[in-house]
Each structure stands twice: as structure tokens, then as C-alpha cells.
Amino acid sequence: MLRPQSFGFSVLLFVLALLRDVGGDADFESVRSRMTKDSSGKRGDPKAKYWHESTFHPHYDGRFASKPLSYDDQKTNLSMLMESYLSTMSDLGAETWIMHGTLMGWWWNRKILPWDSDVDVQVSAYTIHFLASYYNMTIHRFKGRSYMLEINPGYVNGSAADWLNMIDGRYIDMDKGLFIDMTTVRRKEGSTGKLTCKDKHDYEEADIFPLRDSVFENKPVKIPYNYAWLLEEEYGKASLTKTAFQGHVFNSGAMEWERMK
Asked: Could you tell me the pTM of the whole model?
């Protein structure tokens, strides 16, 4: 008998996932019960684009919100969104790690940067297919709130030429409209030890794996192995030490980014 923790069971799940279809875009009526107006940019977007960010802010889902949150509310709700995502992925057994500006927040104080309005994570090709096959459009409860995991059917196309669909999945706050962007890391064709994403970020496999264990927003999290080099390469060496940025200054005593007065 195959057990959930066995290699054979994992292979079976992968084979079953390959045989399943992925659902399409969720329409407004099927995902929102309180809003009377759809504030997504669906009408003005190209037909080939799956995600339709809100008409009022690129980091809000207009199916679930009609205006952006205040500075403090956004910080609080992004933190809860991240906690929920990490808890949910852990429960599902789905490997994921933080990247880009979110990893930079981890570098400074293990929190989301206060001027950020979204969160960036990565997953493997296996994980995105697993989530698409078994958990697409599922709703997850966390601390009395509802969050939806939605996978872009275009995830099966790993080409950077599909630039309208660089984001493979989103984890969405169904009350506030905030979301986490999920991108897939794939092996780069014709190369050894090279990884790539549809957003045209390329990596050495040894810079990502093995993943390290840490803590972020009070939850266990995975981070890439060579995190300092990855941050330096993407944002420049000064980003790791510069204590004033985006109208904020870093208080090393309190370990917090504070707004400049």
C-alpha cells in the first residue's frame, strides 16, 4: 500500500495530475457574493491575458475590492495573507519559497516591506501542476477570513513569449482583493543546472536549491539557498545595506521600517 510520504505515492499523484484538466477563469458571479460591481480590468485587457487586475490599482483583484486599502490596513492584511498562504501550502504539502521584493523584506526584518502592495513567491513545475490539478479555485479559511487559490491555465506554457501570462497562480484575499503572485521555476531547455521563469529571470540551480528554512511573518518559510547573491544581483549590492528607501528609514533598534516624517 502506498503511503502519502512514500516516493511511490508522490509519483502516483504526479501521474494522476498529468491526466486531469485545469479549469478556466472564474467569472465574477461565481467568486463574489457581496460586491455589486466588478472593478477588474477585464474589458480593457487583451483576450489572451488571464489575470485582470483592478482598474484602480495593479496589485488588487477587482473581483474582490473596489478601492485600495489605507497604508496601515494594507500592511496588516498583507501580513495575514502571507500567514495564510504559508499555512495553506504547508497543509497541502506544496513546496514554495519567497523571492524578489518579498525576499528583500525577509533580509531586513523577516517581514513584508511596508511600501510593497503584493507578495512574490515561486514554486516548481511539479508543484504548480499538482495545485492546478487538485486545488484550483479552492477556498481556504484562516483566522475567520477566506482566501482563494487560483491557477492560470496558461501555466502549461513555460515560454517567456507568453508575456501576458507570466503569473502562473495567485492566492487571493477574497475580502480585501490583495494577492500573492506565484511564478513557476522550470529547467531551462538545452542547459545543465540552469533554471528559468516566464518573467525572464534565470537562475543557477545551485543558487535556489537546496532551500533553506527560516521564518517570515511569524510563519515557517523556505528561502533560496544563495539568497544574498540573488538579492544583490537583482537589486544591487547597496540594497542590502541602504537604510533609507521609498520614504522609509530602517530603525535598527526596533528592527522596523518607519515612515519618514
From this structure: 0.87
